[in-house]
Design brief:
With about 55 residues, the protein is of the alpha+beta class. It has one domain. About 25% of the residues lie in helices and about 30% in strands. It contains 1 helix and 5 strands. Strands 1-2-5 form a 3-stranded mixed beta sheet. It has a two-stranded antiparallel sheet with strand order 3-4.
């Protein structure tokens, strides 16, 4: 189980991260290159970044 803090407004993402830390749950962030022409992330470039492992 992990909390994904991707895609929210800054206060919401920070709140999710803080709640995950308090609960001892790992936090992750998904990043990808953005295709400006298609106006969406390029799925083949997506990668998961572990932000913390509190345990």
């Amino acid at each position: 189980c992990a909390v994904d803090v991707t895609g929210g407004k800054v206060p919401m993402s920070l709140g999710a991260f803080m709640a995950a830390e308090e609960a001892g749950t790992p936090s992750i962030y998904v990043t990808a290159e953005y295709d400006a022409r298609l106006q969406r992330p390029r799925a083949e470039t997506a990668r998961v970044v572990r932000l913390s492992t509190p345990y």
